[in-house]
Amino acid sequence: MPIDQSVTTAAISVRELSFAWASGETVLDRCTLSVPKGEFWMLLGTNGSGKSTLLRLLAGLLKPKSGDIEISDRVGFVFQNPDHQLVMPTVGADIAFGLVSEKLSYIETLHRVKESLSAVNLSQMLRRPIYALSGGQKQRVAIAGAIARHAEVLLLDEPTALLDGENQTDLVASVRELVKQKNLTALWVTHRLNELDYADGAFLLERGQVIDKGDPMRLKQVLLDRS
Ligand SMILES: Nc1ncnc2c1ncn2[C@@H]1O[C@H](COP(=O)(O)OP(=O)(O)O)[C@@H](O)[C@H]1O
Ligand SMILES: [Mg+2]
Q1: pLDDT surpasses 70 at 1
Q2: 162: domain CATH number?
Q3: Are residues 29 and 120 in the same domain?
Q4: Residue 198 falls inside a structural domain
Q5: Rg (CA), the chain
Q6: Which atom of ligand 1 has the smallest separation from the CA of 53?
Q7: Nearest C-alpha to atom 26 of ligand 1 is from which residue?
Q8: Which of 12, 30, 202, 211 has the greatest number of C-beta atoms within 10 Å?
Q9: What is the Cβ-side half-sphere exposure of residue 49, based on CA atoms within 13 angstroms?
Q10: What percent of the chain has pLDDT above 70?
């Protein structure tokens, strides 16, 4: 059978996904999108358009009302506020804690922790207390936690919202590099249009539907024209 090289595999595939809160408020309304494996896509939309709800549905934290979600690999989630995610006193302990359910040996756990810290350029921080890290470093630890669990699909919900300019560009550039280096797939929610420079593609969500998608530079212009 001939293989069509132009067909890319989707790592995240969402079809006609709908979700409503118990109050009856519809947040996602037959939302359809897909992210190709190995790519870094961004999700944009005004406050309340359903971005966080969509990410939580993708992570299996909420149950859809209808529609399909297919995700090819293990998911790692990164929240806006790393203090809601990092629970142990030190960097190494936090990443190791995330591996408890994997039932690894001590040596294997240490190997995974070190490997993941190296992937986010924090190799020197194994024993560093979490409180002594900058916001950007905390987000890198959260990402290392996902890498250590061998997550290949990263869902990041406004991970730069609490960071200053330099930490913001560092984080987005390093996530792009990580995605390319390790052939991961990432869906990154943001309000900051300059981050689109690092994306392979973007979706624009409005009232629970994808109303535009594709080239990030074109979408950046669409949003700049609106503001
Ligand atoms: N836990 C919740 N219970 C009820 N409504 C919620 C809850 N979380 C969010 N919402 C509502 O769902 C809508 C979409 O929210 P959200 O997905 O957080 O939007 P975004 O991340 O795009 O700002 C908003 O109207 C919000 O008020
Ligand atoms: Mg949100």
Answers
A1: no
A2: 3.40.50.300
A3: no
A4: yes
A5: 18
A6: 17
A7: 48
A8: 202
A9: 17
A10: 97
State how far the Cα of 227 lies from the Cα of 216, in Å rounded to an integer.
17
203 shares its domain with 106: no
Residue 63: the pLDDT is: 96
Domains held by the chain: number:
2
Specify which residues 26 forms β-bridges with. Answer: 20
User: How large is the average pLDDT for residues 78-90?
Assistant: 93
Q: Which residues, at least 6 apart from 15, have a Cβ–Cβ distance to it below 8 Å?
A: 32, 67, 68
Please give the single-letter amino acid code of residue 49: S
Are the CB atoms for 219 and 204 separated by under 8 Å? yes
Q: How far is the CA of 109 from the centre of ligand 1 (A)?
A: 37
Beta-carbon contacts of 54 under 8 Å, excluding residues fewer than 6 positions away, are 14, 17, 28, 31, 43, 205
Q: How far does residue 48's CA lie from ligand 2's centre (Å)?
A: 7
